[in-house]
Amino acid sequence: MDPGEWIHSPRLPLIDPYRGVCRAADPFEADEKTQRDLCNWGCARGRCQRLPREGADAVRFAVFSEDSTSLRVVYIYEKDCAPVDHGIAEDPFDSAPEILRTQLRAFAQSYRRRMDHFQSSRGGENVSIATASSSTSAE
């Protein structure tokens, strides 16, 4: 999906916008406007009739750790903007359930693309967003 439709690129759960098939109910591919306005954001409860009333309504992702050979991602299931479950998965995410695995792989792809761009803009300096953010977090 082309991120150029937004005036400013938002921080989406998968970092970049994606097109895909809705799995909230029977597989269905929504139009681009619906995917842009609802599907790419999560928390569409009350705005999307396909989202079941029970269970999580969004999944959030963040890099937990990385090194030259692996990427570990924390995922947090939310309902009504509050966490209800979480876990940590390691690339290639083979042990995750299919839908979560697909989302984890999309997040990792976007993360790596952003990191490659960021590092090339800094002259190849090896920079880790995970390391930078963890060093500023409060404990």
Set out the fold topology:
Elements: H1 32-39, E1 58-66, E2 71-79, E3 82-90, H2 98-121, H3 129-134
Antiparallel strand pairs: 1-2, 2-3
Q: Major beta sheet, specifics?
A: 3 strands, antiparallel
- Biggest sheet strand order reads 1-2-3
Number of domains: 1
| Rg, Å, rounded | 16 Å
Beta-strand content estimate: 15-25%
Which word captures the global form?
globular
Number of helices: 3
Number of strands: 3
**What value does the average pLDDT take?**
83
Determine the structural class based on helices, strands and strand pairing.
alpha+beta
Amino-to-carboxy terminus distance: 37 Å
* Range of helix content: 25-40%
Report the uncertain regions: 129-139
User: What is the H/E order?
Assistant: HEEEHH
Distinctive features:
19% strand, disordered C terminus, alpha+beta, 3-stranded antiparallel sheet, globular, 139 residues
Briefly summarize what is shown.
The protein has 3 helices and 3 strands, in the order αβββαα.
Question: How would you describe this structure to a colleague?
Answer:
- With 139 residues, the protein is an alpha+beta fold.
- The protein has one domain.
- The protein is 27% helix and 19% strand.
- It has helices spanning 32-39, 98-121, 129-134; strands at 58-66, 71-79, 82-90.
- The chain has a three-stranded antiparallel β-sheet with strand order 1-2-3.
- Strand 2 (71-79) and strand 3 form a beta hairpin.
- Mean pLDDT is 83; it is low at 129-139.
